[in-house]
Amino acid sequence: MDNPDRRRISRPMGLDTDILIAGGGLNGTTLALALASGGFDVTLVDPAPAAARADDAFDGRGYALSILSQRVLAGLGLWEGLKDRAGPILDIKVTDGRAGEGPSPFVLHFDHAEIEEGPMGYMVEDRHLRPAIIDALSDAGVRQLDGRRIVAQEPSESGIAATLDDGARLAAGVLVGCDGRMSGTAARAGIRHMRWDYGQTALVCAVAHERSHKGTAHQFFMPAGPLAILPLAGDRSSIVWTETTDRASEIQALDDAGYLDELRPRFGDFLGEISLAGRRFTYPLGLSFAHHFVAPRVALLGDAAHAVHPIAGQGLNAGLKDVAALAEVLTEARRRGEDVGRLDVLERYERWRRFDAATLALATDTFNRLFSNDNPVLRMVRDLGLGATNALPRLRRSFIREAAGLTGDLPRLAQGRPL
Amino acid sequence: MESATTIDPSEIAKFEAMAAEWWDPNGKFKPLHMLNPCRLDYITRQIAVEFDRDLSASRPFEGLRILDIGCGGGLLSEPMARLGADVVGADAAERNIPVARVHAEAQGLKIDYRHTTAEALAAAGERFDAVLNMEVVEHVADPLAYLTACHDLLKPGGLMTCSTINRNPKSFAMAIVGAEHIMRWLPKGTHEWSKFITPDELYSLLSQAGLDPVDRKGFVFNPVSWRWSLSDKDLSVNYVTTSLRPA
């Protein structure tokens, strides 16, 4: 398990690992890699076996990675293996539509040719991204404790003692909770969340279609919620389709033919005939935001800190920004010889990320409230707004850069630089 | 010199409480904790450059003997020890020594804390690769005699970082009226403005002590980001210098 060639820092007596990560999802595993590259000894605990998490069967889920996220993955040496299977997003078209009516004449069009960084992002399938990260963990010397969960944690002046469900105890310098919106790490640290339920559920699936999507992502704003069509590699697209929760349960209960009958009028026929490719998922939508991102010896990251309405596909992208920021704060602290788990060190991460995450949560919330309805006045405002934004090249460029993740105070990994 | 094991057990709880005070990021020493990352950035980079060490490596300061003068609770000694250096922490205030020891022990760090002065260490023939002389010189009675002792403590080719506060109306406003009276960051009477030294005066004193001043930077507080950073140009209040003992 221990790789003797790995660089080690001097760990205070009695610590088993520098950083203990709860949760082996995309954020937790990426953070483990980033911290290992920064010279830390890292231990990752996840309730699911790694083999199950690394399963690469196609299940229809995909991520719209911002350029920033793509750079983080590149900085960690993961992009080489992914780039041939990633679909560039060259165009984003946003339209206000109503099922059966087709899109309104006002179309907001973002073209990657307007920014110098190339594509606005990349579509990557979950089945390619997850195994690529998990495979890299053992080479990086990350210790993985699978099929186990943390049941207790106790911070002290020199570290944090975690107890696992099999009774094992581990002392770490810092515990990072990457354990999702119902984070046990946060609950045990006494960190509460503000939560809003939207009464909406996202239906997620992949479709194959006759014609090429030419790298264009579409966002249709429907009365019940947005429909996103995101270009996967080949003639397939990932669909994120939001409905009221009641309506979503009805649709999810239909057989595939009935499901497609519901989707077709919303999707339109611009890509020819469509068929389902992979499984169908549902995700209830809600917004949650932790009152604090850090506590003594504890940091929260990704959905554990801030889960946003996935209206703009920014959840994973925001999580990877957290990863880059926390890895940089901790690595810099280590190079100064600081005790990396001290609250004043962890607060640097919180100060860096909290404002940005709150802005995103607020923006997606407002966006959703503005667009998820059939109020004729708001519909007109939306149409005029989309049209006006389209007419203003500078404003449009700033939206493109925001969507690509190229704004704000960027961590080094997110600039494509090493830690 | 007393060792950690000779501390009266009944005293340990008291020292632990004082250590907790020294190390509380929001407590009495908050301004030092806020300044510390910036001081450490400067110190670690100067040492790394001079002794050709890679800060991304494990224990980059292994093999270096470092003296922290006026070590207090060990805010600089502990990071140096964590980076692998062999550290002596000296403080003229006797009560700081067991406090610093208790904290270092809890962190699993081996640091040689001593109740002594720079002059006494120099007279005893102690020699170091690097001397950290941070926020001390403005408190001593005879800066030239003190800096001469610091010179003697360095091995030939050794490096000293020395920080202090500039003397001008702005530093009076910031360090005394601002930090002591308005912000209550520091106890009143911590500083005596007339003892503050301008960067040119410090360079001249360092040269008279036989040292080669090679670098100076300002520590600048940004009230918007609420963070200290290093500045090449603004040495108007807090500043730091590096000097070398000629080989």
From TrEMBL, chain B:
Pfam families: Methyltransf_23. GO terms for molecular function: 2-polyprenyl-6-hydroxyphenol methylase activity; 3-demethylubiquinol 3-O-methyltransferase activity; polyprenyldihydroxybenzoate methyltransferase activity. CDD domains: AdoMet_MTases (cd02440). SUPFAM superfamilies: S-adenosyl-L-methionine-dependent methyltransferases. It comes from the Bacteria. The keyword Methyltransferase applies. InterPro entries: SAM-dependent_MTases_sf (IPR029063), UbiG_MeTrfase (IPR010233). Its EC number is 2.1.1.222, 2.1.1.64. S-adenosyl-L-methionine binds at R39, G70, D91, M134. It catalyses: a 3-demethylubiquinol + S-adenosyl-L-methionine = a ubiquinol + S-adenosyl-L-homocysteine + H(+); a 3-(all-trans-polyprenyl)benzene-1,2-diol + S-adenosyl-L-methionine = a 2-methoxy-6-(all-trans-polyprenyl)phenol + S-adenosyl-L-homocysteine + H(+). GO terms for biological process: methylation. The keyword Manganese does not apply. Keywords: Methyltransferase, S-adenosyl-L-methionine, Transferase, Ubiquinone biosynthesis. Pathway: Cofactor biosynthesis; ubiquinone biosynthesis. O-methyltransferase that catalyzes the 2 O-methylation steps in the ubiquinone biosynthetic pathway. Belongs to the methyltransferase superfamily. UbiG/COQ3 family. This is Ubiquinone biosynthesis O-methyltransferase. It comes from Kangsaoukella pontilimi.
